[in-house]
Design goal:
Helix content: 25-40%
Strand content: 15-25%
Distance between the termini: 69 Å
CATH class: Alpha Beta
Structural class: alpha/beta
Order of helices and strands: HEEEHEHHEHEEEEEHHH
Number of helices: 8
CATH topology: Rossmann fold
Largest sheet: 6 strands, parallel
Shape: globular
């Protein structure tokens, strides 16, 4: 074998190993990179929670899906303040020819699911709007006890979203958006606004809650770790990325 042929073989081997290794993204969990995933699943944690905090619902859901999902899906969790990094990640994953812009065909291939809690729920809607400006569709948005920052509106779902669902609770000083609505009901189906009542069915979080959470925001804190609620979120995500026979989900009563 010539020196040139050996060099080409070594280079090809290096590329195959490099693409199989996980990468780290700012504000996000480990990226298990798949070159052209069929689905892009993006989660956002609330407040000032780290993207890899295992005690919080969005991180747990992402880890379970990534560990057991058999479909070709890219799954990553971001801190809500790193929405720009999430946006850039989506564009990069959709840009199959790596020319720095998205063609109509690349946009049509988008299969995106967004979910988040608290400020992360608001980040979901904000990211969906940013994708709309690029003409990129979103399959599903899931908001859990969504809380908007002063300059944000997490109530109105943009028309590039096919389906949207909202989970909320009303206990304490901080509680989520009670109702979301579609900008264009003919293009977006609101699956429901579902209330969880922690006064009657409290949840014991694995992590120790601060006095602030225990006294002033007990319901909001419990929405971060409620296994039943996050099982509903996980089922919704799986319904869109797995074969229908294995991913049926019954929505809770509003």
């Amino acid at each position: 074998m010539s020196a040139l042929a050996r060099s080409r073989c070594l280079f090809a081997a290096f590329l195959s190993i490099a693409t199989a290794l996980p990468l780290f993204a700012e504000g996000g969990a480990i990226e298990h990179v798949q070159k052209f995933p069929d689905y892009i699943v993006i989660g956002f944690v609330g407040g000032f929670v780290r993207h890899d905090n295992p005690n919080h619902g969005p991180v747990q859901v992402a880890e379970r899906i990534e560990r057991t999902d058999s479909s070709d899906a890219y799954v990553q969790v971001f801190e809500n303040r790193h929405r720009k990094a999430a946006y850039e990640t989506v564009l990069r994953l959709l840009d199959r020819d790596h020319d720095g812009s998205l063609s109509p065909q690349e946009k049509d291939r988008a299969r995106i699911i967004l979910f988040g809690q608290s400020w992360g729920g608001s980040a979901v809607v904000m990211l969906a709007r940013e994708l709309r400006r690029m003409g990129i569709p979103v399959l599903l948005t899931v908001q859990v006890d969504s809380v908007a920052k002063p300059w944000q509106n997490d109530k109105v779902i943009p028309p590039n979203v096919t389906e949207a669902v909202n989970f909320y609770q009303t206990q304490g000083l901080i509680h989520g958006r009670r109702q979301i609505r579609a900008t264009d009901p003919s293009r977006t189906e609101i699956l429901g606004n579902f209330r969880f009542d922690y006064r009657h069915t409290p949840v014991q979080c694995q992590s120790r809650l601060s006095w602030y959470d225990r006294v002033l925001t007990p319901g909001h804190a419990q929405s971060e770790c409620d296994p039943r609620l996050w099982s509903e979120v996980e089922a919704l995500v799986r319904q869109h990325i797995e074969p229908p026979a294995s991913a049926a989900v019954a929505m809770p009563r509003p």
